[in-house]
Structures are given as structure tokens and as C-alpha cells.
Amino acid sequence: MIKRLRRNFIIVNMLIVTVMLSVIFGLILFFTKADMEQENIQLLRSVSMMPKQHGRPDKLPEDRMPPSVFSVQQMRDGKYLAIGQEVVDFSDEALLETLYNAAQSAESETGVLKAYGLRFHTAPGPMGKSVVFADISDEQKTFFRLARTCALIAGLSFGVFFFISILLAKWTVRPVETAWNQQKQFVADASHELKTPLTVIMTNAEMLLDGAHSEEKRMQFSESILTMSKQMKGLTESLLELARSDSNTERIVREDVDFSRLLSEAVLPFEPLYYERGLSIDAYIEDGIHISGSPQQLLRLIDILLDNAMKYSDPQSVVRLLLKRQCNACIFSVTSRGDTISKSDLKNIFRRFYRIDKARSMNHSYGLGLSIAVQIVHTHSGKIWAESADRTNIFSVKLPLES
Description:
Structural class: alpha+beta
CATH class of the largest domain: Alpha Beta
Order of helices and strands: HEEHEEEHHEHHEEHEEHHEE
Radius of gyration: 45 Å
Number of strands: 12
Number of helices: 9
Number of domains: 2
Mean pLDDT: 83
CATH topology of the largest domain: Heat Shock Protein 90
CATH superfamily of the largest domain: Histidine kinase-like ATPase, C-terminal domain
Helix content: 40-55%
CATH architecture of the largest domain: 2-Layer Sandwich
Shape: elongated
């Protein structure tokens, strides 16, 4: 699909370029040719209006005739007189007669004799009509040279634009390709995450149908089914939350949120959970920090970071929370002790379904929490990042203050 989209982009772009180049160079050739023809016709008209020499009203002054221009006039005795530049053989009476008659029989007073490469203009005179001819071979050569130059420039321009179109197609389609690959990876990962609990549920359900097992075993099978069902419910809810964020169907209602108070209240439910795992929370929360946003989503963000720290902290360690002002923003960070996160994992840890190998266990972690946190932070025009060194992991969020 991506290749077809890129190819269609190049085709459409080159069609537009072809039409534009054709119109531009076509207009250049058209107006250039029209100007040359008009100048040549004006020259013929000016020559036809030149005064005759004294004593020879039937003859134009040869020294004033422009280059490649001559005049033909029929005399009283029926012969034809040619004056000017000898573009054709003036001694050929039949040729002069043919040229003269061809010009006289034309529908308009100005035209072109293509067979002879001449443009003519018929004008009345005291001795009868005279016809002024001009050789247009130089005009045609000039036009053909211009047309050849335009064709060469158009060909080179087409090649350059084709190369640029390829680069633009790659650059333009890259976000679509990234989204497409992420979608395929998302579907594959979601299918994998759902496959395991479904397999467990089906296996335990089959065991329940088998009457050979004791009541105690059947109770264990039921508990296993319930556990896996809860896990699937949590995964499905996370997937739906991400889907709503991606489709922008979930519009948040912004309000003034006392983030200091919200964080203080969010920590309380986690204290007994931390205590059960041998952990403790040390919080420093600066008072009076207000931001504009959704209290529900901000609370969800806090829960994700606290839950993440609880799952992956060393036993008997202290998780430190920090909330402070920084210029026109506030910094909220969660610092915990645990395995050092590598640089490659730090780049990918916010991706969907990404989990560090050591964290791949049945601890109700789907690799979606940090992805949801990213969506919430972006919705609130903030920034989220992670740092890790010397077994100390820090997840930080920067949010703009309420103005």
C-alpha cells in the first residue's frame, strides 16, 4: 500500500509539473512566434508605403530596401518587375508571375507562401497592385532554435522535478508509513497479548467440563479463569483508551486544577500498596501549583507513574516524588531504585506494548501504561521523558502552568 501511495504521489506530481511546463513553454513559443510574425508584417507594410523614386513611380529605391525583402509589380506590358534583395531568381519571369498571382489570389492581403518560404503583403500603387515579399527562413530557424531550447530546458526540468518528486514522496509518505507500521505492530502485539489469557481461559474451561477433577481443582480452574478475565478486561480498557486518544474522539473539558492537591490525594491510596511490597514514598510537593486540564486524566497520569515505580523498584527502597515550579511550567518526577534502563530501552519504553525483557511477567503489565501517559501529557501540551543511571530511574513530566 505504501509503495502504491508513493507511486501515485509521484505520478500526480509529475502530471502537474508536465502541465505547468507545457503551458509555460507553450505560451513562450506562442507569443514569441506572434511577435516575430507581427514585426515581419509591419516591415512589409512599411516597405509597401515607401515613396517611389523620381521618374520611376513603378520602382522602389533599392538602397532603402530591408534585407531579405523584395517587391514584385506587374508592368503595363504584362511583364513582372522585381526590386530589392534577390531572394529568388529575378530573371525567372515564370517564378515572379507565380509568386505574384499566388499573392493576388489569397483571401487576405497578408499571408505566407509555405512552398517558397515567403511572407507577402499586397498593397495598391499608382501603377497597379504591388506585392512585397519577405524571406522567413531566418524567422523559422530562430523559432525552431527557441523551440529546441525550450524542449531541452523542459526535459531537464522534468528530470529535476522527477528526482525532487521521489524525495518529496518519501518525505511526505513517511508519516503514513510510520503510522501504518505502528498500526500493524499494534494489531500484532494486541493479538499476542490477548492470545495468552484466552488460551488459559479455554484450557481451564475444558478442565471444568471434565468431571474427573476434584472440587478443589475445579475451584482453582474457576479462579484462574476469573484472573485471566480481569487481565483481559484491563487490557481491553487500555486499548480502548488508546484508541479514543488516537481518533481524537475523547475531548477533554479543561478546568483549573490544583495539581499540588491532586497529587497529594493521589499518593494516599498507594501508601498501603507500597507498604505491602516493602516500599515507601517520600514526597516533596510544592503548594499552590495550578494547571489547566482534566482532573481525571491527570489523576490517571499520576497513577500510571506511581504504579510503574511500584512494580519495578527494588525491595526496601524509597520512591521519591517531586513537584515544583519551573518558570511558566511545573515539573513532576518519580524517582525509584531498580535495574538501570539501557539507552535503547529509554528510546522505546514509551512505545505501545514495549516492555523490558526482565519485566515480562504475569504482573498485569501490558506495556500500555506509559503509552497512555504520553497521550495524556501531549493532550495537556506537556512533555514526558525518562532518565536512568546507576540503578536510579527517573520519569519526569513537564506541564504548563495555568496562566
